[in-house]
Each structure stands twice: as C-alpha cells, then as structure tokens.
User: Which sequence fits this backbone?
C-alpha cells in the first residue's frame, strides 16, 4: 500500500539551504519538517515519524576541521543507534553538498558501516566554485533517484570542498559495485576537466549511493532547479526543472 512519506530536514549552526530544500520536497508533495539537531537530542523518538532524512547544504559549524566533520561526529556520537534502525527499516537518506560531506565523514557512504573511507576535499582550483554543471547518470536502471531524468542534465554547484577523493583500491571497488550515481561531464556527456569538472573529483564523481541504494550523497543542488526559470542557459522550451524530479522520485519510491 502506498504511503505518504514525510521528510525530516536536519540543520545545525551554519546550515543555510534548509528552506529551499523544504520547498522542493513540498512541491513534490512530500511533507517536510526542518528540525535543529539539538531538538533531537531530547526527542530521539522523532526519527520514527519520518521515512526520509535529508542533510541539506550549507557550512555546518563553519566547516571547521573539514567540511561536515563536526556535524558527522555529532550524529555518530549521539544518534548512531537511531540511524542504524532507520536504515534497517528501509528509510531514505539524502545528503546535498554539505550533506554529502557529512555522509562520507560519518561513514554512511559508500558502505553504510560508519567507517569513513573517502572524503570531499578542497577544490583543485583552491576557491569556492559557484556555477552550473552538466551531469551524466550512471547505471540508470539501478538508481531510482534519477529516474525520468535525461541521461545528461544540468544542475548548479556551490562549494569549496567538493573534490571526491579516496584511495585507488577503494575507488576501484566503488566503480566495480556501480555506486557512482552521477559524473561531471560536458553538454555532450563526455568526461572533461575543469570547469566541467568543477572541483577535480576523481573519475569526475559528482554523486554516490550506498550498496543498498537507499542513501544518496550529491554535490550538485537539485533544490535550486525546481522551476524551469532557474536554469540560465537551457533553451526555454527545453527547461524541465530537473532538480524537482529528484524529489518527485523520492515521493514515487514510497508508492
């Protein structure tokens, strides 16, 4: 039987994309609540109300130490048991930009075992990159997150630490297990360097799923493309608000 999913959008000091993310969920007909992580410390039972956890973009705790690290430590030390139960019950977890940084440093990507094996580090350019990029889907039959999107589509990025990095042997395992969800490409779908790959990510990786496919981390911001008018360079008649489709796919997952 289909259910009406609810999303909890976790924020902390420095999070700044929670309202846009809430709007995107609601536009996709998913009820979403913004909850400060400190509220959950005394109300851990709130996790049971939701089927989706979203970690939105921003600069949680000022990105001190490294981007997303403090928030990741907080989640592991206080909510590890709740997160394990949430994943065991088949809940979805989405991390966008800073949320992706949190998930890899929490060790929920790529293998959901709380063992950090990869990171998102300083862009090769050494600066904050705020631009639109082209993305190519990988293993499109497997990842429901991007169903109904074209093979190549645009989304915006905005980050200083977005370079996906890990050891060669783990990178090979991620590739072999088809855990790469999106790659940075040019408009023709070809892998290229900067500026098409805005941060220097290994193998042009822009998004990763876990083995089970219920956790997604992505550096691009789908919540910033929920109206056709958002895209600055697609022809007006072609613009389809592809970011909104990500949130619609989350809704459809529970149907």
Assistant:
């Amino acid at each position: 039987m289909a259910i009406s999913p609810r999303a909890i959008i976790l924020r902390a000091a420095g999070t700044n994309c929670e309202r846009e993310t809430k709007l995107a969920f609601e536009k996709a007909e998913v009820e979403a609540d913004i909850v400060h992580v400190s509220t959950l410390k005394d109300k851990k039972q709130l996790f049971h109300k939701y089927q989706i956890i979203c970690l939105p973009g921003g600069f949680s705790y000022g990105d001190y130490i490294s981007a997303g690290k403090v928030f990741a430590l907080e989640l592991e030390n206080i909510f590890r048991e709740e997160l394990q139960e949430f994943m065991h019950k088949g809940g979805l977890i989405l991390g966008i930009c800073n949320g992706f940084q949190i998930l890899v440093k929490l060790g929920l990507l790529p293998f959901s075992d709380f063992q950090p094996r990869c990171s998102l580090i300083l862009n090769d350019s050494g600066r904050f990159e705020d631009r639109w990029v082209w993305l190519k889907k990988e293993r499109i039959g497997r990842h429901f997150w991007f169903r109904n999107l074209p093979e190549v589509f645009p989304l915006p990025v905005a980050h200083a630490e977005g370079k996906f990095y890990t050891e060669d042997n783990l990178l090979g395992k991620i590739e072999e297990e088809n855990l790469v969800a999106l790659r940075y490409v040019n408009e023709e779908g070809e892998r290229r360097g900067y500026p098409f790959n805005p941060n220097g990510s290994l193998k042009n990786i822009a998004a990763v799923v876990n083995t089970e496919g219920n956790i997604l981390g992505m550096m691009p911001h789908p919540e910033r493309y929920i109206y056709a008018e958002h895209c600055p360079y697609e022809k007006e008649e072609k613009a389809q608000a592809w970011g909104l489709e990500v949130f619609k796919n989350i809704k459809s997952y529970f149907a």
